[in-house]
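#lab-general

N.A. 3:47 PM
ok so I finally got the sequence cleaned up, no stray characters, all 180 residues accounted for. can someone with queue access submit it? mine expired

B.Y. 3:52 PM
send it over

N.A. 3:53 PM
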Amino acid sequence: MKPPKGVTLVSAKYIKDYSFLFTFSNGKESLVDFEPIIMHGESLLKFLDKAKFKKISIDKVRGDIWWGKDWDMCFHIETYYGETEIGPIGKRSKPLTVVAAQCAVGYKVRIMISDGTWKEVDFEPFLFAYDRGSLNKYRKPSMFKKFKIEQGNIVWGKSWDLIFPVSQLHTGKIKFRKSL
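B.Y. 4:20 PM
back already:
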């Protein structure tokens, strides 16, 4: 719902589970449950970790809210103003999932998607584009090869340090910003 002209976001308060209470400059409040959208988006499953979900960022003037340094999950004020739930738009048969994966050469992984498609994805450009801090450990071939399939995703690390949208894996390319 589009807010009235001039209305801005005043605050965002974590309530419980996957819900935030948003307060707006006109006094209106929206208690919004984000669980449906998190459960729908393969790349958003990391926000099932409530510690990560609680780390919301907000731009009070523009009304943008987001999670993750790369805006992994983000919404504009018109998306959550006056709403009670944020869910997927439209109906898809089944979301794409990763069914199997095997190491190839270097930092390439052959991945089978639930629609039967096999793609060879090269993770080297992503890993070596710039310093990734604690994620640099996956530059070591022995660490890189320790991926696993969990909940339909290919992930690295106990806490899903690395996870990529299945829709990108399906294209065979990882999209990322080339510089910080």
